[in-house]
Amino acid sequence: MKFGKQIQSQQTPGWGSYYVDYKGLKKIINSLAKGRPADAALLAAGIRPPRPETEEPLHPDAAPLINTASVGGGGDGTLLQAHKAAFFFKLERELEKINTFYYQREATLKVRLRTLIDKRKLLQASLSDSQGKVKGLSRDSSSYGALYEGFRNFERDLGRLQAYVEMNATAFRKILKKWDKACRRQADHFGQRRKCPTIGPRAFSG
Questions:
Q1: Which segments within the chain are labelled E, that is strand?
Q2: Who has greater pLDDT, 121 or 39?
Q3: DSSP-derived secondary structure for 119-167
Q4: Shortest CA distance to 29 belongs to which of 181, 179, 189?
Q5: Which 3 state secondary structure label does DSSP give 48?
Q6: What is the DSSP letter of 74?
Q7: Tens of pLDDT, residues 53-84
Q8: Which pLDDT score is estimated for 193?
Q9: Higher local confidence (pLDDT), 162 or 78
């Protein structure tokens, strides 16, 4: 299974919009091979580009990303720089989105864990005798069952967040590898042997 389909099939239900837009980033890379910087700018701004046979003007929302006039007169090197600007603009926005969602979920899990620990302490205190010894608690009791279920749900949701981190980290590694490959291929075509710019994913570093 291709990774683009894998990331969609393995998403946590309800979290789909918070995963990296792997398909969108891949489309920007593909537009490099087609020599269509206007498409790259539109895709980076989250706008679907027009069909190749149409001559619709560049959407104003994408204008700050790329100066298409300079692309037309600046040669192949400028074309590569235009795609670089669009790709990394989109990449940074995806990174910000993922980090924001991750830290929000992490904060929620921390609160839940503290609450569960406090409930466990209260339950233990209610079962202590005058000498501080804790009495046995039946697994059939409602108090034990509720606390056990709470920890089980916490463990499940923590696992989901860990899977979210791993899937997005893999997506960043793969899309950066694709960018580097496409960029080098295009640079060789243009006769530009200098190293293509890349960045490493900084998500989930806190």
A1: none
A2: 121
A3: HHHHHHHHTB-TTSPBPP--TTSHHHHHHHHHHHHHHHHHHHHHHHHHH
A4: 179
A5: coil
A6: S
A7: 544 444 444 444 444 444 444 455 677 788 88
A8: 47
A9: 162
- Amino acid at site 22: Y
User: Is residue 186 a contact partner of residue 161, using CB atoms and an 8 Å limit?
Assistant: no
Q: Tell me the CA distances in angstroms from 80 to 8, 57, 137, one per residue in order.
A: 30, 20, 68
Q: Are 168 and 98 in contact (CB under 8 A)?
A: yes
Q: Give long-range contacts, CB 8 A cutoff, 24+ apart: 40-44.
A: 40/66, 40/82, 40/83, 40/86, 40/87, 41/65, 41/66, 41/68, 41/82, 41/86, 43/86, 43/90, 44/86, 44/87, 44/89, 44/90, 44/93
In angstroms, the Cα distances linking 96 to 70, 91, 104, 201 are: 29, 9, 12, 11
Q: In which residue are the tokens 């490493």 written?
A: 200
Q: What is the pLDDT of residue 80?
A: 76
What pLDDT score was predicted for residue 104? 97
**Mind listing the pLDDT tens digit for each residue in 177-188?**
998 888 787 766
**CA-based nearest residue to 124, from 140, 144, 110:** 144
